[in-house]
Amino acid sequence: QQQVKQSPQSLIVQKGGIPIINCAYENTAFDYFPWYQQFPGKGPALLIAIRPDVSEKKEGRFTISFNKSAKQFSLHIMDSQPGDSATYFCAASKGDDKIIFGKGTRLHILP
Amino acid sequence: DVKVTQSSRYLVKRTGEKVFLECVQDMDHENMFWYRQDPGLGLRLIYFSYDVKMKEKGDIPEGYSVSREKKERFSLILESASTNQTSMYLCASSSLDEQYFGPGTRLTVT
Which of A18, A78, A95, B30 is most exposed, with minimal Cβ within 10 Å? Predict the structure, then answer.
């Protein structure tokens, strides 16, 4: 019940396309859903996060869509660029508890 | 800017050696974490600490121990390194929701 399931494991998209990464969770007590971005040779860094009281959050070209009833959330990258090529992790947590990470998606944007 | 630093970027050790991985954060964060990252397995939590001298086991603590004598420093110890501990090790700190990660230490055990 503590798992966060992430798909796909890898994704290749043409420049300008809209990659979509999906995550699902089971624990309805989770109340914070962040996405982390990791470039090669670097540690992950927070990209965008959402709480379950809203269904969508946008920051620049990045959007989280959240479906509370389905216990799913997804990351969309509009007008994707080669510089967006990275590994993306979804995650979930409740209160001050530890963060549970998905297994990651390696995204490659073709120029 | 929050900064989390790790003592080494790359480390090569022999089987059976005792290995110390050091992590220091400069933002006075209460919480610190050690993860290992392996292809296809994502980030797996080894140990975490919510305060000085406190430690909690994560999902994969076997073969590891930790030390937190000062608030800013969290050390991961491999008591007797084994080849299956070859991995990328990531340290993180947090005060509220967001975790700040260090650049990682790529450890190879031969």
Answer: A95
Which residues from chain B sit within 8 angstroms of residue A104, using beta carbons?
42-43
> B4: closest CA among B19, B24, B18?
B24
* C-alpha to C-alpha distance for A19 and A83, rounded to whole angstroms: 13
Give the nearest partner residue to A93 out of B41, B58, B97, using CB atoms: B97
Integer Cα distance of B13 and B50 in angstroms: 30
> Chain A residue closest to B47 (CA)?
A98
In tens, the pLDDT along A17-50 reads 999 999 999 999 999 999 999 999 899 999 999 9
Dihedral sign for Cα atoms in the order A102, A103, A106, B1: positive
Query: B101, A45: Cβ pair inside 8 Å?
Result: yes
